[in-house]
Amino acid sequence: MKLTNTFKSAGLAGSLVMGAALSAVAPYAMADQEYLLTVTRPNQLHVIDMSTNEIARTCDIPGPFGTGSIAMSPDNTHAYVLSNGTKDIYGFDIRNCDMTFKAEQSSPTLQVISMQSITVSADGTELYTVQNPVKKHRDRFEVMQPRLAVFNIEDGMNAKVVRTFPVDRRITKIATTAQNEVILGGADLKAINPETGDIRMVSKLANWEKGPLWLPPDAFAMHSQGEQANEYIMPYVTAKFDSEEWNFETAEWWWGMSRVDLETGEAERVETIPFEFIIFNFITDPRDSNILYGSFNTLSKHDISKNETLAVHELGHTYYDLNISGDGKTIYVGGTSSDISVHDSETLDKIGSIQLTGDMSTSDLRVATIKD
């Protein structure tokens, strides 16, 4: 605004005061902020500003390292982490590292382990995990039925289970749909209603019906970093044989995936690309659902509409998982060691690195977008 000498001094002073006030507010009138979250040994949650690729803050997690599994609240302001050897769950406000939630799952006579499985309800009021309980008798251990356990988040630092429902064994990564079904990643993909315990089949894997020439898939639900595309994604390996004699040397080997749209709860299962190298995890480009990226010893880019691998970039060491910025332009590859490798999604060229204080091992790599 241009000031002229027609303004009286009082008006000028008022304008300057208003301008100063607007200047003070301006830093908060910013675009949505993206943060990258992961856990490192000995046991710390790192919140990384993705606009600078610098660590914004580090939160100390009680107990020994678990698996580094992280679930976000729907508004992305709170992170829930499996800790203490995956026996306990802790929640943090990622804006200041305040601990707001604690659920100690075991007792002197019952040991409870949650393998990777943690998610938050669609409305942010409940937390879900799959418990694998073992009862401690005087002379033996008794392996009990796995169960989906439900906690009220508002119970805060003394959260207790409010209800449970029996589920299958072998369930690891889970996620919540907009309809508040919990996707269960196990031998098959199933969904459970956490209010009633009703379970439905989402995508058959171990029990699929592709015929005698197809090898039942070997699925891997260690990570599902699908928040940028609002999906649950599980890779698998399978083979198509040329006869029922199952000659593994002449079979066609394929990578495939089961992918669930978390908005609708609908799923697709498809063979994606020929099996040429190991991939631990897939993520989808938020701009194009046909473009996938994978990581392990390589970072790779694929067009599943053409069953083609578009590019492969050799990595400096093994990385277990990966995630992507909201605009789809930058890929972050992490897990395993103490560095996150940053890449251009178009070329896969390395454009940066983020050094952490310890190794990530099996930790998730989560993107949290906090709305302005």
TrEMBL record:
Name of protein: Quinohemoprotein amine dehydrogenase, beta subunit
Keywords, alphabetical: Signal
Signal sequence annotation: 1-31
Biological source species: Marinobacterium stanieri
InterPro entries: Host-pathogen_enzymatic-act, QH-AmDH_bsu, Quino_amine_DH_bsu, WD40/YVTN_repeat-like_dom_sf
Signal among keywords: yes
Superkingdom to which the source organism belongs: Bacteria
NCBIfam families recorded: QH_beta
